[in-house]
Design goal:
This protein is mainly alpha-helical. The chain is 56% helix and 0% strand. Belongs to the GASA family. Pfam families: GASA.
Amino acid sequence: MKQNIVHNCLFGQEHCSPFISWYFYFFSECAPKCDYRCSKTAYKKACLTYCNLCCAKCLCVPSGTYGNKEECPCYNNWKNKKGGPKCP
């Protein structure tokens, strides 16, 4: 039953609050994509933190373990306070 509600919410067959939609997107999409994106870095904890933060805001993670940021303009354009890239 619960799985059907989640499926219907994600695929627009049932009205869901924006938070619930984001929550399901985050755990079904962001976490696994960021796990892969950060799989080859020596700074895994920091990479996962910022990747998940960026995915939560942008709802996108570039493919691969490095580069390809042009696939996600929001992810690519979010900068830190020093002007460098915020998202890994």
